[in-house]
Amino acid sequence: MTDAALPPIINTSPLIFLTKADLLSLLQIRYATVLVPDIVVQEIRQYGPLDNTAQILQKTDWLTVVETPPPLSPDLQACNLDAGEASVLAWACAHPPTEAILDDLAGRRCAHKLGIPIRGTLGLVLAAKQQGHIPAAKPVILKLRETGMYLSDRVINKALALVEETL
Question: Which residues have a Cβ under 8 Å from the Cβ of 93 and sit 6 or more positions away?
Fold first, then answer.
């Protein structure tokens, strides 16, 4: 687990993909606490009370719900993101150097423009492999893909090359 001064803040899709693949432990390897914007919680609850991710949010004390800080900066508004991504980046802007965990390319580009440190779901897998918490990244990445995360062969190959594995 890292000793980050501030816990990271996570968007909807990484939470859903990690839950579906039964890989939430990848978050716990790195972080004692992970922040979840209230807007992200609302997005997840729309799937219904029987949704696995909604249930995890209710019973997991290390996932901490936070309110989105208003208002969004003009630079963030210009990114034209959905509410969840915007809330993640708004929190990170208001609490530097908070790391944002998100997968959406537009959100990642916006975070880069705003100088917000980012990590995606694949980044969590690669970090777990590099730190010796998992023996291989490939089966974990393929499990994420099998449970619905869109990952092209090109993206997988690039990620695996970073940890000296192949598809």
Answer: 73, 76, 114, 116
The mean pLDDT of 53-67, rounded to a whole number, is: 94
* Per-residue pLDDT, 72: 78
Other C-beta atoms lying within 10 Å of the C-beta of residue 107: 24
Residue 84 burial (10 A CB sphere; 0-12, 13-18, 19+): buried
| pTM for this model (two decimals) | 0.92
pLDDT interval class at 144 (50, 70, 90): very high
Q: Hey, what domains does the chain have and what are their CATH numbers?
A: 9-122 (3.40.50.1010)
Distance separating alpha carbons of residues 42 and 118, to the nearest angstrom: 22
How many whole angstroms separate alpha carbon 156 and alpha carbon 167?
7
Burial of 126 (0-12, 13-18, 19+ CB in 10 A): buried
Contact 53, 19 (CB under 8 A): yes
